[in-house]
Task: inverse folding
């Protein structure tokens, strides 16, 4: 173990270099192919076994344990980003040692930690009973909707992964003292109002989808939130679009809405309120004859609109039992290292196994950071070492 700790300390520069190198590889939502290729190359260079990518682009590499058993411990870090195609990627290291640029912390720090742990295990001959499978998964951010981890734990992969993974450790973001033991659930919707559109002068009086949508969203924002000791909820309109010019009545207006809660029933209550607000706003504007239901927008009669509500994402909620093994081990490691454990609620890749009744936690990759999901994102690798020791000790205790 001391050899592994020394390895992590001695190779801090290589860990930082890998982090910066990966951050320069674009990985927009549903476009992670370049990072998939990068991860395959790095896993093979490290000497992991059975290195491969699945159908979605998540990458796997195994470090063998001493027992010939089917049980494995999964350690995962997502490789995708929130930044769309064409986002300028300027990754730089300042004189104070801080790294700057999009995705440099979320989640290149997690992937860098993953590679550092794998490297220490391979090069220091650290023994453990069960196999470790290292995973660089896709589709964690935004509309990716945890699709990489969802696929790994799907019925399709029941024999290959779901029945074999006994514990999952997710490494995501900076910090070294939090333990995410509760999965924050969410539902995401795209709501659209369609109309005939027209000229702002000649067709004045024709229903304006932007006005209808705005009325619906303003009403939705009156929805009460009932937070308590064991529940917390939120909602947000994050994107709104519509129209073509200042002198045109738009043919449509669209918004994207995020609903989150620790309690599934509360999440559904808020989502239902969104649906009701959308329908009422459409009906208040005008009466849509029943004969128009299902008609294409081009065939809508003058003075009518159509409201469309589409769910575009869902993340399941869940919470680990306080006496489960993975929590007890993580807390014991923190006590050994003198780390004050901070239990945390968050939406991460661990949502999937936790919601299925499996044991999983999310740990930070060390250091500190800020500006996540912006072009001003930054990461300071100072004190990264203690987080790497923590992750390694948790994994080895789980693999006994």
Result:
């Amino acid at each position: 173990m001391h050899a592994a700790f020394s390895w992590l300390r001695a190779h801090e520069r290589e860990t930082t270099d890998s982090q910066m190198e990966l951050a320069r590889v674009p990985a927009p939502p549903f476009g992670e192919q370049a990072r998939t290729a990068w991860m395959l190359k790095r896993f093979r260079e490290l000497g992991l076994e059975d290195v491969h990518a699945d159908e979605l682009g998540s990458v796997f590499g195994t470090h063998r344990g001493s027992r010939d058993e089917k049980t494995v411990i999964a350690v995962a870090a997502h490789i995708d980003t929130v930044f769309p195609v064409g986002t300028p990627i300027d990754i730089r290291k300042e004189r104070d040692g801080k790294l700057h640029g999009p995705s440099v912390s979320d989640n290149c720090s997690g992937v860098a930690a993953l590679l550092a742990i794998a490297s220490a295990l391979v090069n220091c001959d650290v023994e453990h009973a069960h196999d470790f499978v290292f995973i660089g998964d896709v589709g964690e951010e935004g509309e990716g909707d945890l699709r990489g981890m969802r696929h790994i734990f799907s019925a399709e992969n029941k024999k290959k992964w779901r029945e074999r993974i006994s514990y999952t450790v997710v490494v995501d973001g900076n910090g070294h003292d939090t333990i995410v033991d509760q999965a924050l659930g969410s539902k995401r919707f795209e709501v659209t109002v369609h109309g005939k559109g027209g000229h702002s002068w000649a067709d004045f009086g024709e229903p304006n989808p932007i006005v209808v949508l705005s009325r619906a969203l303003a009403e939705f924002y009156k929805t009460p939130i009932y937070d308590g000791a064991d529940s917390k909820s939120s909602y947000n309109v994050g994107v709104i679009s519509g129209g073509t010019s200042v002198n045109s009545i738009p043919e449509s207006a669209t918004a994207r809405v995020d609903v989150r809660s620790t309690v599934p029933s509360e999440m559904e209550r808020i989502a239902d309120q969104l649906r009701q607000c959308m329908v009422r706003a459409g009906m208040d504007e005008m009466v849509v004859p029943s004969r128009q239901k299902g008609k294409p927008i081009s065939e809508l009669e003058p003075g009518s609109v159509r409201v469309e509500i589409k769910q575009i994402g869902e993340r399941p909620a869940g919470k680990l039992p306080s006496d489960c093994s993975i929590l007890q081990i993580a807390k014991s490691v923190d006590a050994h290292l003198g780390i004050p454990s901070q239990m945390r609620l968050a939406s991460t890749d661990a949502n999937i196994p936790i919601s299925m009744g499996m044991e999983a936690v999310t740990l930070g990759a060390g250091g500190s950071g800020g500006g996540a999901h912006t072009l001003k994102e930054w990461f300071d690798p100072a004190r990264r070492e203690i987080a790497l020791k923590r992750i390694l000790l948790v994994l080895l205790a789980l693999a006994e």
About this structure: The radius of gyration is 24 Å.
